[in-house]
Amino acid sequence: MTTTDFGPSEVRWNAPSKAAHPARDAAFRSYDAVLRKDKEAWLANFAEDGWIEDPVGPSMFDEEGKGHHGPDARANFWDITIATVARFEFDITDSFACANECVNVGTIYTTLPSGHRAACEGVFHYAVNDNGELLSLRAFWELDRMMATLKALDAD
Q1: Section 36-52 average pLDDT
Q2: Is the C-alpha dihedral spanning 105, 102, 111, 9 positive or negative?
C-alpha cells in the first residue's frame, strides 16, 4: 500500500457555525495548509512569537511540556508530526469563537504511511493577534485514548 492509496486528506465541518471570525479563519488556514502538505503556508499562519502546544503538557513531542516557541521550533514540530502523516481527516463537530480565540471540538484521524490509522479526539484552541496571526495553537487530547484507536487498515 502506498500513501496515495489512502485517498485525499479532508475537513468535515459539522459544527453549527462556520461564521467568519479571525481565530476560526486561522484554524481553517491551518487545516488547509496541513491538507495540502504546505509547510510554508502553515508556518506563515503564525505570528513571529507564536507557539504550539500539541498536546498541552509533557509529551513525546515536547518532553518538558513548555511548547514549541519561535520559527525554528514550529518548523521542527511540523517535521516530527505533520510531515510524518500520509493522510489527515479533520472531523469538527463544534466550534466556539470569542474575542480573539476559538476552540474547535472534534476528531483528527491520521493515517500513517504504514497503513495504521488513529483517531485523536480533542479540543483544539486557536488564539490570534489583531492581525489574525496565530499566537498559539493548543491541542487538548490524551495519548492513551488515541493509541487505543490505532488500527491497521485493510490492504484491500
Answers
A1: 97
A2: positive
